[in-house]
Design goal:
The complex is a heterodimer of chains A (417) and B (87). Chain A has 417 residues and is of the alpha/beta class. Helix content of chain A is 30%, strand content 23%. Chain A contains twelve helices and 18 strands. In chain A, 52% of the residues are buried. Chain B has one domain: Folate-binding fold (2-Layer Sandwich), CATH 3.30.2270.10. In chain B, the strands form two sheets. Chain B has a four-stranded antiparallel beta sheet with strand order 3-4-5-6, with no helix packed on it. A two-stranded antiparallel ribbon of chain B has the order 1-2. The chains are: A alpha/beta (417), B mainly beta (87). Chain B: InterPro entries: SoxD, SoxD_sf. Chain B: GO terms for molecular function: sarcosine oxidase activity.
């Protein structure tokens, strides 16, 4: 039994020819009924199951996944983690996630390769520097780390940045968040899966939810490709497919699905040890631990479920990279992919009860799903176990679209979704 | 690069177009008597279908809004028509 990973176990298995390792989680058949069923075996769904067991003692729980664990957006993002938002509600949410990430590898006994290498958001004019100062002030007031950098400090962080006289977007300075960084995306999903399984949570893969069991106006379970599963409460954590499942449950959401694409180059020598985002180009990039340059940008302009990017946005992202780092013009791009993101009018997530009682929502993260996994899981577990909001999730309830109390981060911090 | 059919200008590069809204949404009237829930529904809720869909797009070059029938999985465009001519 090598349930707990440690240097000692690794050494002992080395001597025994690595014959003693066990699968990290079971693959059980679904039971006819659970206390809670979570739809979606990505980061948010698995984290929800883990915190239901750990924080609330609910262990008769199943995670239902259409494909394989982390095969959706959790495996299709660019792994950046940050909390450099504008509104207090947003910083409370994303900084909660960042704090949980800081202890997550140790807590899960799984190496999620969290690397706090910092994020610099670069401004290109005096006017943009004033906006940058405003965001830094807001972040500091909201209790997260932020620093206003001048141009020299930005070039110190990323020496290869374009400082030529013909730069279309000259560097005037930027916003620095040092606690931000990147983590291994698959490992986050696998770590939560293994830890949830350790609490007795059933993780059911290759099982598609085809409908909902509704009794007396209340959600009483799900219909799946592997039979009916009854549940005391159901959580929905399916990112880009939230609208599809909401339609099966009989309601609509304020969500439009888009593709968000990213690219990765061939591996090269270490040359960039932070995450850089240009306000001017909308492109951001960093160097992976393998040496690849990981490049991302804004949403594709065409509503889509295709999970593949379209060429106009690819051109925009890559031309942004060339403006920022002219020397990267020699890089060969290895591969390109896209995730399916659920975009909400105010660019903030939806966490809370759905219009169907007994069914709870964790969706609408848009381009920010990966960095919020621990918080999304924690808050949805709180909702499912107690039936009421955690104080951090309250502002993100679906009712804000009727009350008008939107958390408009697209206007506040100029994020890309 | 995909080409979208503008009913007025013919097939043009996709970068000339902007997605506007799902088709079939009509403004609730009389506006003064419409409640917050109904406004929220009109302004924000979407069917967001996976597969065939009918959408309103604008061709930014000529400035005309029009109806386009499209598949959100394959990106195949079935056709487009001027507003008001479809029903």
């Amino acid at each position: 039994m090598t349930r707990r990973y440690s240097a000692f176990n690794l050494f002992r298995e080395g001597l025994r020819g690595h014959t003693g390792w066990q699968p990290a989680w079971r693959s059980p058949d679904p039971k006819p009924a659970y206390d809670a069923v979570i739809i979606g075996g990505g980061g948010h769904g698995l984290a929800t199951a883990y915190y239901l067991a750990k924080n609330h003692g609910m262990r008769n729980v199943a995670v239902i996944e259409k494909g394989w664990l982390g095969g959706g957006n959790t495996g299709r993002n660019t792994t950046t983690i940050r909390s450099n938002y504008f509104y207090p509600e947003s910083v409370a949410l994303y900084d909660f996630a960042l704090k949980l990430y800081e202890g997550l590898g140790r807590e899960l006994n799984y190496n999620i390769m969290f690397s706090q290498r910092g994020v610099v958001t670069v401004a290109h004019s005096e006017a943009e520097m004033e906006i940058a100062a405003r965001i830094v002030n807001a972040m500091q007031i909201n209790g997260t780390d932020a620093e206003l950098l001048g141009p020299d400090a930005v070039f110190d962080k990323a020496p290869l940045l374009n400082r030529g006289p013909k730069a279309r977007y000259p560097v005037f300075g930027g916003v620095w968040q040092g606690r931000a960084g990147v983590a291994r995306h698959d490992a986050v999903a696998w770590g939560y899966a293994r830890a949830a399984d350790g609490f007795g949570v059933d993780i059911v893969q290759n099982c598609e939810v085809t409908g909902f069991i509704v009794e007396n106006g209340r959600c009483a379970g799900v219909e799946t490709s592997r039979g009916s599963i009854r549940a005391g409460a159901v959580g929905l954590a399916v990112a880009g497919h939230s609208g599809v499942l909401a339609a099966k449950a009989g309601f609509a959401l304020p969500i439009q699905s888009y593709s968000l694409q990213a690219m990765v180059s061939e591996p090269v020598k270490p040359c960039l040890d932070t995450v850089v985002l240009y306000l001017g180009t909308g492109t951001y990039l960093f160097q992976s631990d393998k040496g690849e340059i990981v490049v991302g940008g804004g949403l594709d302009r065409v509503p889509s479920y295709a999970q593949r990017g379209n060429p106009p946005m690819q051109r925009t992202v890559l031309s942004g990279m060339l403006e920022m780092f002219p020397s990267f013009g020699q890089l060969k791009m290895l591969r390109q992919w896209a995730g399916n993101v659920d975009v909400v009018p105010d660019s903030s997530p939806i966490i809370g009860p759905s219009p169907l009682p007994g069914l709870f929502l964790n969706c609408g993260w848009g381009t920010g799903g990966f960095k919020s996994i621990p918080a999304g899981g924690w808050l949805m577990a709180h909702l499912i176990a107690t039936g009421s909001h955690h104080e951090i999730s309250r502002p993100f309830d679906l009712d804000r679209f009727a009350t008008g109390r939107l958390v408009d981060e697209a206007a506040g911090s100029g994020i890309a979704h | 690069m995909q080409r979208f059919p503008c009913p007025f200008c013919g097939p043009r590069d996709e970068t000339e177009f902007h997605f506007a809204a799902e088709a079939g949404k009509t403004r609730p009237e009389p506006a003064g008597e419409v409640g917050a829930e109904r406004w929220a529904e009109y302004l924000h809720l979407k069917k967001n279908p996976k597969g065939p869909t009918r959408e309103i797009w604008v061709h930014t070059t000529c400035g005309e809004f029009f109806l386009m029938e499209r598949n959100t999985v394959t990106h195949e465009v079935v056709g487009s028509s001027a507003l008001g001519a479809e029903s």
